[in-house]
Structures are given as structure tokens and as C-alpha cells.
Amino acid sequence: GNFNWRFIFPFDYLMAEEKIVISKKESMFSWDETEYKIPARLTLQVWDADHFSADDFLGAIELDLNRFTRGAKTAKLCTIEMATDEAAFPMVSIFKQKRVKGWWPFVARNENDEMELTGKVEAELHLLTAEEAEKSPAGLARNEPEPLEKPNRPDTSFIWFLNPLKSIKYLICNRYKWLIVKIV
After folding, report:
1. Which secondary structure element, helix H or strand E, spans residue 167, and what is its range?
2. pTM of the full structure
3. For position 37, what pLDDT does the model report?
4. CA-CA distance, 181 to 184, in Å (whole number)?
5. Which residues pair with 101 in a beta bridge?
6. Residue closest to 56 by CA, chosen among 118, 104, 112
7. Cβ neighbours of residue 158 under 8 Å, at least 6 residues apart?
């Protein structure tokens, strides 16, 4: 799937401890908030959207924001080794670099309990201070984000049962148009 939305995750970060601080009440009867210090991790997951049955898990990647594999420059360079053998790839920290863009692999365990490449995601991560975020607002939830470049979407939908003629035209004409021109 292709989408072009920005997601905002406000948080407090302790640079010395490399932890995120979350304040919340332990129960609705508590007067004071309790602070929790947790590792700075971003988990991206992909699920399919079934209408009549439960959604199926397709894959995930977890990025430790203090030290994670630099994203590949292209989808072809993005491999499962980026998630399984992190020591072989250059590492970055979002807290030092402030902006990271690239391709990362989604992995899941198969029936044999082995890691399997299930997809790839192109993502761009920006770390902003509260002041920088106010100067460059983004849409919250499903509101329109600030203008970003258009994603590279396929020319046609492969939902052949909804538009079979368009799919046939795409599959036959685009691949064999020069052969058809030579024959005619």
C-alpha cells in the first residue's frame, strides 16, 4: 500500500540516560502522576484490513532510536539482513542526526519460526523541538499534513475483478506494445 501521512509523537527525552520519560497516573484514583523511563523505540507494524475476519499480522520492525540501522537508499538494497544482522550495517541515532530517510525491512516469523522478509517501508523520520514543531505544524490524526512530495504510486490497481479491462490493458499493452506495433 501507499500512503503519505505524517504522524506526531510528542515525548520528553533524557539525553544522559537515553530514555523517554512518560508521566501518567497509575489508576484513576491516584492524585499524582508517576514517571516511567522507557527505552526510545519506534515499532512499525503492518496488518491487512479484512472486512469479515480478523486482521492478519504481516510484518514489523522495531527501531531503537538511539542506535538503529541506517535505511537503504533504494528498495532493492533493503534486505532482511538489515533487521537480523545489524552489526554489518552503519548505525545512526535520530537524536544526533535529527533527520533520517530510507528503506527498512518488515520481518515476521514463518511456520518454521524463522525470520522472513514480508515487506519494505520507505520512511522519513524527523526529530523536532517543541518550538520547531510549532513553526512547522502537521495535521493531527487524519487531517491533511503539510505538503509533501507525492509518493511513487503504481499506474494501475491490480484489483482485476473491479476493473478487468484496465488490468488487461496494463499487463498486455505496456509489455508487448512494440510487438503489436511491428505486427500491425
Report:
1. helix 164-168
2. 0.68
3. 92
4. 5
5. 124
6. 118
7. 167
